[in-house]
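Before surveying the methods themselves, it helps to consider a single example record, giving the amino acid sequence and backbone structure tokens:
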Amino acid sequence: MTPKIFKKIAVAALTLVLAVSAFADTIRLKDGSFIKGKITGFTGGRFTVVIGEGSRQRTLYYSADEVESIEFDAPGTLPAANTASRNVPSVRVVDNLPPARDTSTSNPRVVTTDTTASNRSQPPPVPPTTPRPTPLPRETAARNDQPVSPAQPIELNVKVLADNTANGWTHSGWVVKKGQRIRITGSGQVSLGADRSTGPAGRDDIEDAEKLMRAVATGALIAVIGDDNNEFIYIGASREFTAQRDGALFLGLNEGNLDDNTGAFDVKVEILP
């Protein structure tokens, strides 16, 4: 072989190698990425793809389920499948597509390094869910079902003197507001003089023309609201009433002459809620 002929053969071989290497198939995967390489086979439901050249050349394998489409730069057909596997996957093959879009705007993810099939078979990580705040414990049904305890009345314990101290009136220590409900209970015995005694209910058998409430028993427990008021209230042993005015609550005995009296009634005043 002459040197001239050998040179022509070498140039033709180099041209063929460059032409073959210039072709690269585009494999688009279902996760949105694509691979530039050469599909060299399809065996056992997997594509064999060679990427890179020389010492950087890698062989990758992709399951048919991972592949969305394949674009062959060199028009042709799918690589010959192994005769033992006749189930060629239904992969969309794209030939003579229009030029790809400018990747500077779409920025698709291009895989140019080895990504093993084992990594690809793993499902994408599930984004962590924000834990719901633990609801605060609700009030127990038993607590909700229990009746609300009514407000307790305000109680005052008063010694109501029977004599003429403070003009015969004992301040209860409470200033009444109009509309308040008041319950007063008296107990004990006092002396009315002349060897006579009585309890809070008073005595009907003792005449007294000067007593404050003519129709009420002598020596009975009575009350008045305010120091400028003559609207006396009969209490007796017990009475509950609604205040008709504002003012300090005073307690005393229904008798005209208190000079010879001794002792005191034990009185409980309750301001009801």
